[in-house]
């Protein structure tokens, strides 16, 4: 028979001595309070850590969608319209088939895709981006022209993009 025996409450007897095992309520509460304070400090920092990722995703998303819009305009033989909405938080692309919509800015007959920006990112464009059936950037009258997109995060501009009349789109980082 062993000299060691444990009881239900976590005490251990060893040769007549009693040792308490476990944590007191005070120790547990102190650990919880310290954890809560550290968590309260860390949570605002997490949003700040995601900001560069949101910016990168927004920039690459616009580039991919410009290429997709250009390709869809060529493939479907339509006038492609990439429209940034007034709040700047999202945009959509669709095709305008013959006869073309004569309203300014023109609207698409059907929307092919749309995207919402992550975080607090917004985009502004100097006008509605229109691709002709050859993939070139044109204005509402069909004249080849350039268009500009500015991406911002909480009012801070972090990237400028230019859609050239040839259909080439490039972004420049503003740092």
Describe the model.
By secondary structure, the protein is α+β, with helices and mostly antiparallel strands. It has a domain of 122 residues: minor pseudopilin epsh domain (minor pseudopilin epsh fold), CATH 3.55.40.10. The strands form three sheets. It has a five-stranded antiparallel β-sheet with strand order 6-5-4-8-9, covered by helices on one side. Strands 7-10-11-12 form a four-stranded antiparallel β-sheet, with helices on one face. Strand 11 and strand 12 form a beta hairpin.
How would you briefly describe this protein structure?
The chain has 175 residues and is an alpha+beta fold.
Give the overall form: elongated
Give the proportion of residues in helices: 25-40%
Structural class: alpha+beta
- Number of helices, where a helix is a run of at least 4 consecutive DSSP H or I residues: 1
Unreliable runs, pLDDT <50, ≥5 residues? Answer: 5-9
* Average residue-wise pLDDT: 86
Largest sheet: 5 strands, antiparallel
Per CATH, which architecture of one domain?
Answer: 3-Layer(bab) Sandwich
The named CATH superfamily of one domain: minor pseudopilin epsh domain
> Helix and strand string, N-terminal first?
EEEHEEEEEEEEE
Spatial sequence of strands, sheet with the most strands: 6-5-4-8-9
């Amino acid at each position: 028979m062993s000299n060691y025996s444990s009881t239900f409450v976590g005490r251990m007897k060893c040769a007549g001595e009693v040792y308490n095992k476990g944590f007191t309520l005070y120790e547990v509460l102190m650990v919880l309070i310290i954890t809560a304070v550290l968590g309260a400090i860390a949570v605002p920092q997490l949003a700040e850590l995601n900001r560069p990722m949101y910016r990168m995703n927004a920039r690459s998303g616009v580039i991919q969608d410009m290429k997709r819009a250009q390709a869809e305009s060529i493939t479907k033989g339509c006038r492609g319209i990439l429209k940034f909405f007034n709040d700047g938080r999202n945009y959509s692309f669709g095709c305008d088939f013959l006869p073309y919509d004569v309203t300014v800015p023109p609207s698409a007959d059907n929307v092919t895709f749309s995207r919402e920006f992550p975080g607090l990112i917004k985009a502004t464009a100097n006008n509605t981006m229109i691709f002709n059936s050859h993939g070139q950037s044109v204005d509402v009258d069909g004249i080849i022209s350039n268009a500009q997109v500015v991406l911002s995060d909480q009012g801070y501009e972090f990237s400028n993009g230019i859609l050239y009349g040839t259909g080439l789109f490039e972004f420049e980082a503003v740092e």
